[in-house]
Amino acid sequence: MKNIKFILIIFFLISIISKTNAYEGHGENLGREGPPPAGPYKLGFKELERAIKIEKKGKLKKAKIKFEKALDYFLKANAEDPANPDILNYLGLCSAKLGFDENAEIYYLLGLELNDQHNSIKYNLGVFYKNQNRISDTKEILNSLKNCECEEYENLKMQIN
Question: Lesser CB count within 10 Å: N end or C end of the chain?
């Protein structure tokens, strides 16, 4: 628990430092009309959707590139909004898909520290634990979803069986 809090503090400090760099150059008129470009969260989400779709088709190398792009966007989004459990969930998902298992678990656990009722994080963490062959941890996550009456519980239950 102390390690997670320490990591969270470091995480916030890095994001504060990154924020100053992220906002440089904003406010300039670049000669464009219309709405501003999509932010890193939205761009990351689109890349993640594409990566999952490509992965389902079996094109793993191409999917990996999309997961890497999504991860980059979510890291930028996290620098702008460091206490967002949705961003941490997607950081965990992308990290897990890319084989950065330690980072994935940290992101999921940080997200749950911020919102312990976030069913998507719980589901993704449960799948992560299952893939790591940590069945008792998976069952613990499943048990925490038991009373939510949500699709995450049913989906995780099917993953275990």
Answer: C
